[in-house]
Amino acid sequence: MSEQEKDQNNAEPQVETVEEQQAAAAAEAVEPTAEEKLAEVEVELAKVKKALAEADVRAQAEVQNVRKRAERDVQHARKFALEKFAGDLLSVADNLERGLAALDAEDDALKGAREGIELTLKSLLDAFARYNIEQINPADEPFNPELHEAMTMVPVPNVDPNSVIEVLEKGYQLNGRLIRPARVVVSKAP
Predict the structure, then answer these.
(1) Dist. CA 2–CA 60, nearest whole Å
(2) What is the DSSP string of the chain?
(3) For 131-167, how does the pLDDT look when each residue is reduced to its tens digit (9 = 90+)?
(4) What percent of the chain has pLDDT over 70?
(5) Is 153 within 8 Å of 187 (Cβ atoms)?
(6) How would DSSP label each residue in 84-100?
């Protein structure tokens, strides 16, 4: 046999083998039936529906969170809108109290002025109460650094250490939030 014949004999089985492989692949790759295609489409549709449902739940949760956050911000703004204004009025209350302390209670000539200042102070404190502005007057109470500012410490016998012995300036809170701490003198051990 010549080499050409050998090559042809060798080539033919390879061609047949390739043809056989193609035929086998074609037989395996039989086109799916309409029912199989429908089943595949239904599976894909179910996946898409599930993804959309999850996205919808997340979107609704986000909307609720935004709504709650906005409501909380509005409540916070309403609750503490007066904070700066109230802070400015504190000095008025302080000055009225200082004026009362400076007036001689025994002097009949100043009785009318004293009553006028007392009524004005009472009116101001009533307005504070209507808007939840509370006065902090910690006389004879234990020192609380969250509500009080110690201006000085003085050794005092027969008084518990860290007790407020004098209030220099009353403190105030608006809806539980400290506007100004009470400025106090605190006792220390002798």
Answers:
(1) 82
(2) --HHHHHHHHHHHHHHHHHHHHHHHHHHTPPPPHHHHHHHHHHHHHHHHHHHHHHHHHHHHHHHHHHHHHHHHHHHHHHHTTHHHHHHHHHHHHHHHHHHHHS-TT-GGGHHHHHHHHHHHHHHHHHHHHTTEEEE--TTSB--TTTEEEEEEEE-TTS-TTBEEEEEE-EEEETTEEEEPEEEEEEE--
(3) 899 999 999 899 999 999 999 999 988 888 899 999 9
(4) 83
(5) yes
(6) HHHHHHHHHHHHHHHHH
Q: Give residue limits of the domains in the chain.
A: 82-188
Q: What is the CATH T-level fold of the domain 82-188, as seen in this structure? A: Nucleotide Exchange Factor Grpe; Chain A, domain 2 (2.30.22)
Tokens 């090559």 correspond to what residue? 7
Q: Give the pLDDT of residue 24.
A: 60
In which residue are the tokens 């033919």 written?
A: 12
Per residue in 60-111, pLDDT (tens digit) is 999 999 999 999 888 888 777 788 888 889 999 999 999 998 888 788 888 8
pLDDT at 183 over 90: yes
